[in-house]
Structures are given as C-alpha cells and as structure tokens.
C-alpha cells in the first residue's frame, strides 16, 4: 500500500480500533459522534483497502479474524501514538519545562543577563537555559534560538520585539586618573588624555559627540586598546585613561565610586547603543518555558 492509500484510511483505522475495543458498532459510533451505519461503512472501506476480512459480524456478536487481530494490534498502537502526540501540545502549554536557548552580545550577556538567568533557574527547576554568547547578528528562526537580545535603534521586521532597557555608551575614568591628568570639560580635551578604545577598526579612535546643535569629532590615542568592554573597564579602574564602554558595563563601578562619567552633558555616539530588545519568532502559541523567561527578564531589568 502506497502513501496515498494509507492517508486515505486513517479515519477508518480509528473507527476499526474503537469497534474492536468496545465490541459494538453502536458504542463506537456514540464515542466517535457518528451513526452506526457510518462506522460500519468505515470498517468495510478499511477491509477493502487491506484486501482481507477483519471481523465476523452477526446480529449479536463481533469477532476479529486472524487478520483482524493483527490489524487491531497495529492500529491500536497507531491510535495511541496519535493521542500521545496530541497531548504534547497540552503538556508544553500547561507546564514550564524543557530547554530555552537565548543569544546575546558578550558584554550584555555577562553584565545584564547572567545574574537574572541564575535567579530564573533557581525559580524554575524544570527549565534549562542555554546561553549563546555572540557579538554577531543571530537569526532566531534560522539558528533555532528561542530568544535573541539585540542592541539596536530599529528592531527588525518579522520578529516580535520586547524592549528590555536603553543601551547608551559612556566615557568613564577613575577619580585618581582625573586628579593626575586634569579634568575633561570639552571633547577636544580628550586629545591630551590617554584613551581606551576598541582598536578593531581603523577609525575606532575617532570619537563623535553631540550636544544641542553642536557636533564634534576628535581623534584620540592611548597606551592600551582592547576589543572587550570588561577589559577596558578594568583598565579604567586601574587609572590607565578615559574609556568608552556601554553604560551597563560601567554602572556597578560607578556606583562604587571607582569610576566617574566623563562629559556627562555630551552624547557619545557609538554603534553599540540604542535599545536592548528581546527578539523572537511570532507565533500564536508561546510555550510556557519561553514566556516565563521573557516575563522574568523584562520584570527584573525594569527594576534596575
């Protein structure tokens, strides 16, 4: 029997199983919400498709033939598997469990997500989390990732975007450094200071600022360049110069008084800023394990 004939008798197989289990066309018909004659026709169609008689029918009794016993065993397994499959959706929609894959840029993953993922795992012991740390653009659909954090001003079309927090870029320095090298009151003052920047691309040391209608570009230099924000953070705390980094990387050190913001009245324009969004594929059914992680992150970050 080919694929198409098989697909054509699935309903007949279900009817046959119910008749065999209940021993009655009438009882099977009541369970299937059909008439007894309709159920009888379904069983007859299955017999015709298989080319064998499955049941001996009398006015009082039904008895399976040898072929019917074999067919019943196989069809019953098929129906049970189908019922179990239908319950998967209910189970996943009812109880949070399983693994959630979430991707985020390195600095955001370490400084913002990681502490909240630890608290989430403690609260939901049946949910596992795989954190994929990557500074590249991750496509949640193509790469089978449930949630993606992206820092951008314009979230992409075709994905649901939940805003987590504003992601600005700041300049910071240690109080000791500023005491030893003088204050910075204007962006051009930075040209006389040691500055800590990425050094990945040719113009990473071209810093741009804006204030009201004024825009300023300065070319900075320094003794230490590093394309990792936490390394620049450590260097700034060690009084090696004025460092650029995301605000969420610097905030703890600033709260402790280890760093102060430089040029707070100016907007430091960088690519790594905008809003941190949680991105995920649009669907009518967001499974509980993903939904509760979204809600957890949104609520926790909103309190910061």
The geometry reads as rod-shaped
Q: Give the N-to-C terminal Cα separation.
A: 64 Å
Largest sheet: 5 strands, mixed
In the sheet with the most strands, the strands line up as 4-3-5-14-6
Q: What is the number of helical segments per DSSP (H or I, 4+ residues)? A: 10
Structural class: alpha+beta
**Average predicted local confidence, pLDDT:** 90
Rg, nearest Å: 33 Å
- Name the helicity range: 40-55%
Instruction: Give the DSSP E fraction (strand runs of 2 or more residues).
Output: 15-25%
Outline the structure in words.
This protein has 304 residues and is α+β, with helices and mostly antiparallel strands. 42% of the residues lie in helices and 23% in strands. The protein is built from ten helices and 14 strands. Helix 2 crosses helix 5 and helix 6 packs across helix 10. The two termini are 64 Å apart. The model has no long low-confidence stretch (mean pLDDT 90).
What labels describe this entry?
304 residues, 5-stranded mixed beta sheet, 14 strands, 42% helix, rod-shaped
Which helices and strands appear, and what pairs or packs with what?
Blueprint: H1 3-8, H2 10-22, H3 25-32, H4 36-50, E1 55-57, E2 62-64, H5 66-94, E3 98-104, H6 106-123, E4 127-133, E5 147-152, E6 160-167, E7 169-173, H7 175-181, E8 195-196, E9 206-211, E10 214-219, H8 229-237, E11 242-246, H9 247-255, E12 260-262, E13 267-269, E14 274-280, H10 288-302
Parallel strand pairs: 3-4, 3-5, 8-11
Antiparallel strand pairs: 1-2, 5-14, 6-14, 7-11, 7-12, 9-10, 9-13
Helix pairs in contact: 2-3, 2-4, 2-5, 3-4, 6-10
